[in-house]
Amino acid sequence: MGTFVISKRLNGNYKYEFVSRKGKAIFTSNDFELRFECEEEIERLKVSIDKCVFMRFKSSSGKFFFRLILDEHEIAVSRKYTTQLLLQKGIDEIVKYAGKAEFLDFSLGDNIFNDAQ
To answer: Could you give all domains of the chain from N- to C-terminal order, each with its CATH number?
Structure first.
């Protein structure tokens, strides 16, 4: 099952990613000023995943990716895939698991691993 992961960008804004059950990021959201905005959009995405549109593209380097559109607004961009089949598998995983996925919050940036003394 996939998971939504909230984290902080270097510029101080928040983002979320949908991470596959194997631990690979499938897509990354746009920036948010406040963390709760991430949570609200995740919840909105979870309840309306069937209304999402996946616009497929091919980059100049030959890689495939998609833009996730909800209510006529782009909310996320996928990672780059080497084949259309892998791209479709990423989309299928979102459709199958996003509605019941949990989210993890790594936005605090605290050192979760104690320094070795």
So the answer is: 3-104 (2.30.29.80)
